[in-house]
Amino acid sequence: MLTVHTIRDATPGDWPAVWPFFHAITAAGETYTYPRDLTADQARDWWMLRAPGRTVVAVDEKTGEVLGSAKMNPNHMGGASHIASASFMVDPAHAGRGVGRALGEEALAWARAEGYRGMQFNAVVESNTRAVRLWKSLGFRILGTIPEGFRLPDGTYTGLHVMYREL
Ligand SMILES: CC(C)(COP(=O)(O)OP(=O)(O)OC[C@H]1O[C@@H](n2cnc3c(N)ncnc32)[C@H](O)[C@@H]1OP(=O)(O)O)[C@@H](O)C(=O)NCCC(=O)NCCS
Questions:
Q1: With a 6 A CB cut-off, is 27 part of the ligand 1 pocket?
Q2: What pTM value is reported for the model?
Q3: Mean pLDDT for the chain?
């Protein structure tokens, strides 16, 4: 069943609701290249962006509960500043209900509206098949894969994809 949710710009007051699932996802160490032992303050500085970046939250339309969050930003500066990037986290308690797809579509719409010419994901963990499939369905392709570019918590290695789509 799809969760009825809406996406809006994040405010500083949203951070206490984002941190618990941000922490769960990064501490699990399976999907992000963030350090696994980030503090809440460090994580807030990395996640809650100001212009030219943007951070959004997906909230339950009825209760206002934060279900997921995304940040979007220029991937590089100078001559490559026309390529955007984005990162996504959905509360595991609300996964599989369309929130990630909606956040992905929001990031693409934002990047188009801001005049970016492409969106690049720098480090998509190959074993994160849910994310890889979702990004492919949103028009991204794998440009290349760093073999054994990511070490999983069990000590085994998996690839790290660079994914891209034109806008
Ligand atoms: C990856 C992530 C953002 C997806 O968000 P989500 O809200 O669970 O995704 P959605 O419900 O929108 O589902 C998107 C697709 O994922 C797939 N999917 C959903 N639930 C799934 C499950 N339990 N198992 C496998 N695939 C699943 C489906 O193919 C779905 O496609 P559909 O819309 O055609 O049905 C979310 O799981 C997450 O935050 N994961 C941890 C952090 C992470 O990996 N971030 C991305 C780093 S690149």
A1: no
A2: 0.94
A3: 96
Q: Beta-carbon neighbour count of residue 101 at 10 Å?
A: 15
d(CA 128, CA 160): 10
Phi, psi of 70 (to 5 degrees): -145, 145
Whether residue 162 is contained in a domain is answered as no
With respect to residue 57, please indicate whether it lies within any of the assigned structural domains.
Answer: yes
Per-residue pLDDT tens digits for 46-81: 999 999 999 999 999 999 999 999 999 999 999 999
Q: Ligand 1 in contact with 34 (CB < 6 A)?
A: no
Q: Are strands 54-60 and 66-74 parallel, antiparallel or unpaired?
A: antiparallel
Determine, yes or no, domain membership for 149. Answer: no
Q: Structural domain tally of the chain?
A: 1
Alpha carbon of residue 40 to chain centroid: 17
Domain of residue 66, CATH code = 3.40.630.30
Q: How confident is the model at residue 141 (pLDDT cuts 50, 70, 90)?
A: very high
Above 60 in pLDDT, residue 126? yes
Mutating to test ligand 1, I would choose from 130, 142, 164 the residue with most ligand atoms within 8 A of its C-beta, which is 130
Q: Is position 132 within any domain?
A: no
Residue range of the domain that includes 41: 5-118
